[in-house]
Known about the structure:
Layout: E1 3-7, H1 13-27, H2 34-49, E2 57-64, E3 67-75, E4 79-85, H3 94-105, E5 110-116, H4 120-125, E6 129-130, E7 135-137, E8 140-148
Parallel strand pairs: 4-5
Antiparallel strand pairs: 1-2, 2-3, 3-4, 5-8, 6-8, 7-8
Helix pairs in contact: 1-2
Amino acid sequence: MTVEINPVSGADLDAILELGERTNEAQVIPHLNAEGQDTMRAARRSDITSIADTQTYRALKATLGSKLVGYIAWREGNYVAQLYVCPQHQRLGIGRRLIEAVKAQTSSQSLELKASVNAIGFYRRCGFIKTDGEQVVKGIRYVPMVLKLEP
């Protein structure tokens, strides 16, 4: 079966919320202290469902057959706010394909994001570079990164 990349629709939001929460719990939460875990869990649902605001966000989904296996959401032309790939489908190029799809749809000269500490290696392999050291806000750890795009 081939992974397909398509725009997210309102009908996808429940599956996106479930995928985002499950992946976040398994891969981000373990890297945070108690304050960060509480902060992340408190904000996570509203952050994920905010991608339904099509005035602010653009979002793409990756599906394998009828199963949602990943999604990416960005705003302001170049800020990647969310990128999740189902853990059992990681290391298959799905995250990279989602980033490539955003690159093809943006007119910006760069993509920016705040990488969870567990995802820094993935973003480096995609060409992102750190723009600053690790940051901690309300216990949530991240590293600002940027990917320069060809004009």
